[in-house]
Amino acid sequence: MRFSDYERIVFFTGAGLSAESGIPTYRGKGGMWSEYDYEDYACERAFRRDPEKVWDFHDKRRAAVFACEPNDGHRIIAEVQRERPGTVVITQNIDGLHQRSGATDVIELHGSLWRVRCDREHVVRDDASVPMSPRKCSCGAYWRPDIVWFEDSLDQRNLRRAHELLESCDLVVSIGTSGVVYPAADLPRIAMRSGATSVEINLDETPVSALYQHRLRGKASEMLASMR
Ligand code: OAD
Fold first, then answer.
1. Active site residue: 58, 98, 110, 122, which one?
2. How many angstroms separate the CA atoms of 56 and 51, rounded?
């Protein structure tokens, strides 16, 4: 199974892809949600209750991600994209490492750590400051990280585009995701139903492993290299 056998490839990525860059995953040992309660840091209710606390948490994440570099896994994906223009990345990651590795067509299902928005003025902008400053928009409201937090809905345009791309791809490669967060976890199924070849890359079995035709067990960068 080689990338060169396919024309329209979708890489569907999760936190395990960035783990080799030193960014902690969300679940499992050392996972973000075993250290932090999302109800205090990653939902709209927490932000309304205590925006400063939520921003302190996101500033810490910005600083941690800023200090990390894309790894070989990100680089291989960007290379495949350059060689095969029909290739897209649909990511659950908010770290921006795909873009930093040179990937171009990246759908960020869960938003980005590097974008902020003002829900009062309906403005969204890129912001790479660490720490993010100032925390308030000129209208007086707090900027909000443009991230899909728990209990938020996904952006419908992103979701529609993801559906279309998955319906027409010939290979879907799911990488480093636990497959437990919906609706994202359902997306690879669209490609499978449409007849695409499916590959799961993960260190371990996941609740959705059985759906995939091919299961590659190991580090994302090494498994991606084996498909070059
Ligand atoms: P998880 O933390 O739930 O899962 C990470 C997966 O990566 C696990 O299945 C690991 O076995 C696997 N993994 C870890 N290191 C790996 C490596 N080097 N190579 C290959 N696989 C590896 O992360 P996600 O599935 O991405 O939401 O989590 C989904 C969403 O839940 C995230 O987008 C996040 C979170 O709440 C937001 O940030 C909005």
1. 110
2. 9
